[in-house]
Every structure is written in C-alpha cells, then in structure tokens.
Amino acid sequence: MNECVLPRPDDWHLHLRDGADMASVVGYSARQFGRALVMPNLKPPVVSVQMALAYRSRILAALGPASASFKPYMTLYLTDQTSADEVRAAAQSEDILAFKLYPAGATTNSESGVTDLRRCEAALAEMEKQGVVLCVHGEVTDPQVDVFDREAFFIDRVLIPLRQRFPGLRVVFEHITTSQAADYVRQAQEPIGATITPQHLLFNRNSLFQGGLRPHYYCLPVLKRESHRLALLEAATSGSPRFFLGTDSAPHARNTKEMDCGCAGCFSAPDALALYAQAFESVGRLDRLAGFASHHGAAFYGLESSSETIRLVRSAQTIAESLPFGNGGQTIVPLAAGQRLDWALAN
Ligand code: DOR
Ligand code: ZN
Question: How far is the CA of 285 from the centre of ligand 1 (A)?
Fold first, then answer.
C-alpha cells in the first residue's frame, strides 16, 4: 500500500493554549483535521459557555482563512461549582460538545479540578439528561497509588461507581494507556468511548529513559510498559467504534519541559496523522485507520463523518527537531523529534 485515502479525520482531544502560543500551533491541526475537540485547561480554566465561545472566536481569528475548513468544538472545565444551569446552557450551544473532568491535581492546570465527584451530582445528572458528554481524565490522584497504576485504580474507584449512578451519562475515557482501560471500554455498557494518543500507540515507558531522561516523552497519564502499548494498538485497530482518535497534543515550550520539574505533555500535532498511520501500519491494519480517525469519534458525538477526503502517501519524512512557539522567540520540540516517518499528507 503506497497511499491511504480517508475522510478528513477529526481530533477528539486537543490542547491549543491561548494567545500567541495558540496562534503558533493551531495551524498544524487545521491542516490535517476537519474538527477538533478543544480542551479547557487554560489559566484561568474555561468554566462557562461565555468563556468557551470567546475562546472559540480567538481560535478562529488566529486561523484566519484556514478557519473555513476547521471547526473547533469546545469543552467546559467541570468544577465543584459547575451548575445544572451551565450544563443546560452548554447543551443549547452546538459549538460545545462536552465537559471535561480533571481530578484536582491530576495534571497540567488541574488545580481547579474536581475534588470530589459527589460535589458534581447536580451537574452530572443534568449532563445525563441533556446528553452532554463527560470527557474524563481517568487517573486517581491519591499519592499512595503508584503513578503507573493510577488509571487502573480510577476504573474501580471512580468510573464504575460514577456510571452506576448515571448509567445514561455519555462518557469518553480520554487518552487510555492500559490494557485494563481498553478491556473496560470494550466490555462496558453503552454509552462509552475512549480516545487513544499517538504516543501511547507508538512508545512504551522505556522511551522516557532511552540513554537518559527524555522529557519530551513525558505526558500524563505516563507511558506504560510494552504489554499495555500492545493492548492499546489491538483496541485501536480492532474496528470497534468505541475507540477513536484524540491526540492529546499538549504544547509546552521547550524550556518548560527541559527543567527541574518539567511539564507533562507531548506535542504531537505537527505530524499527528502520519504518526497514527505508522502505528496502524506496524500491525498491518492501515485499512482500519479510517474508522478510528474519521468515523468512530464523529458517530459517538452524533455527527456525520466528513464528506471531504484526504490522502496519505508513502514518503519518507524526518520529524522536526524543534519548531517556533509563541511570539517570544521560544521553541517547542514535537513528539518523536528527529525520527523517521513513512507517511506524509498529500496536499
Ligand atoms: O500530558 C498531559 N498534558 N496530560 C494532560 O492531561 C494535560 C496535558 C496538558 O494540558 O499539558
Ligand atoms: Zn489532554
């Protein structure tokens, strides 16, 4: 196979930041994807419909003419204070698709996250009623739990009880990283889906320590051992509509990752689709890329797949070592910098 044609894909989990940082990265996603679900963990977090729509306007303005072919959908940041009224207002807006649950302290800018889901009962009940999706960062924050086990513990301690209380709640288990999560999503009662990132399909935790400490492979949930990577690859390429593309591309300036206490996040946006193609081809399943990248996520969110197509062609590329970021002369290191890719987007 030397080319792969698919409906224009969508990225169902994307961090864009704001201001000049956002303006410097959003074009990478717009070049490949038709739609993206934009995460709300700004500082301060996007907690209201009004903030989300203002943020969306800034994204479209930054894109300029490219905004004609890229539709950002927004998420609201769930907090202990989120009201049922805010959920109803979000449900009324066709540009807002979901709320995002960050357990407080779980990851980047999660300080305002949920301290106890019991404080969110009214909001969750309204989401269930309105059919608004809950996107979940699925890790417990209990410092007693080993960082590599935090996702598996989350399933038993939080996700299963939550879904027993709200069986109709539409849940996306974001950026799953373990065989336990893949198994849970595969066998659970509807309605549930999961996104999978390129880094968790391509790399295991050895990449964090390859010849030294590798901050550009550090994200949360952290990369896991090889058996988990293989389970995720199996899930993504299985054809199951429950698994779909969400890069979790999370831009951080180079100097904020290469430091004493570096930020979590892999910046995969520039070559996201080619990275996924690489992963699917590694198991001979490029034929399943269109389902994962272009159909399953849209269907979960109740949207049509794109009627446009894009074409990936076999063509050797090297991922950039570094790219400009923001407008202050900063740089950013993409995921798998300097590594070879076999696929490129034909324009
Ligand atoms: O690695 C991560 N980076 N994981 C997250 O959950 C958040 C993200 C970010 O915003 O940087
Ligand atoms: Zn994320």
Answer: 28
Distance 2 CA to ligand 2 centre (A): 32
Is 219 a pocket residue for ligand 1 (Cβ < 6 Å)?
yes
- The verdict on the CB of residue 41 being under 6 Å from ligand 1 is yes
Look at strands 133-136 and 96-101 and give their pairing: parallel
- Summarised one tens digit per residue, pLDDT across range 305-318 is 999 999 999 999 99
**3-class state of residue 301 by DSSP:** coil
SS3 of residue 161 by DSSP: helix
Strand order in the sheet with 309-318: 3-7, 309-318, 340-346
Structure token pair of residue 135: 């996107």
CB of 250 closer than 6 angstroms to any ligand 1 atom: yes
Structure-token pair, residue 299: 């269907």
In this prediction the pTM is 0.98
Residue type, 225: R
